[in-house]
Amino acid sequence: MTSLTAAPGVPGGACSPLGQRLRVLLSSERVVDDLRHYFGAGLPPGAIAFTGSRFEHLAGGGDRPEVADRVTAEDLVAVQTLSVTVPAPVALDLVEGRLGTQLSDLLQAIPRNIDLVDAETVVLDNGSPADHAWHLLCGQYKVNWVTAGKLLARKRPRLLPVYDKVVRCALGRPRPSFWLALHAALRENDRALHRQLLELREAAGLPQTVSALRVCDVAVWMGHRAEGHACPR
Fold it and tell me: Which residues contact 167 (CB under 8 A, 6 or more apart)?
């Protein structure tokens, strides 16, 4: 993630390139079935859901009030369900050391009970606590950018999206950042894309604890995977 300056406005009724791409992907006939398969909704006995279906729900979630502002061992297991691992020295520092204290201070300044579509741009902007948290992990502690993003998404699942190599392969590298480009896309046309994600969640029979952002991530990942792309998770 590079500069997190504000995304340019999109004229009323128009869609940004990211918004257009997402509307196409989310309108696929297979999306609802993909969501059900991933999360194990309505599957017959013995059917296995994807491990990532536990990402936001493991141990009650990373944003539950008593742990929302600190990284726990459960959070480190949760990111493994999305096929990444925090290096052991960094993991220990997050749970017991100075890095954990630094990240906790930043998490306290990042809203917990707000969806990305409702957030002000300043919450995601260059120099925001969320931006500082991402750069703290990736810069000073050299955590892989995908892993850093997934850890922050675990702590703020309604606000910060998962952005990994599969999503990047499907959606590209929007400028000035994926966070802000998605934020803008969700708000276009009276929040049509956000409403579409909520409708897909309902159609798939998923609980409301699955955020709109996770619906988006899973739909994009499953669809891109089905198209035969060999992007690693």
Answer: 178, 217, 220, 221, 224
The answer as to whether 184 is a domain residue is yes
> Count of H helices and E strands in the chain?
10, 0
Q: What is the pLDDT of residues 24-51, one digit of tens each?
A: 999 999 999 999 999 998 777 767 789 9
Rounded Cα distance between 153 and 28, Å, is 25
Angle 98-107/88-96 helices, nearest 10 degrees? Answer: 60
By the 8 A CB rule, do 55 and 134 touch?
no
Secondary structure class of 19 (helix, strand, coil)? helix
In a domain, 8, yes or no: no
Residue 213 lies in a domain: yes
Q: What averages of pLDDT result for each successive group of 10 residues across the chain (233 residues)?
A: 37 78 95 95 77 95 98 98 96 97 98 97 97 94 95 98 95 94 97 98 95 98 75 50
Cα–Cα distance, 116 to 15 (Å, whole number): 18
Contact (Cβ atoms closer than 8 angstroms) between residue 204 and residue 32 = yes
Element (H, E) at 99: helix 98-107
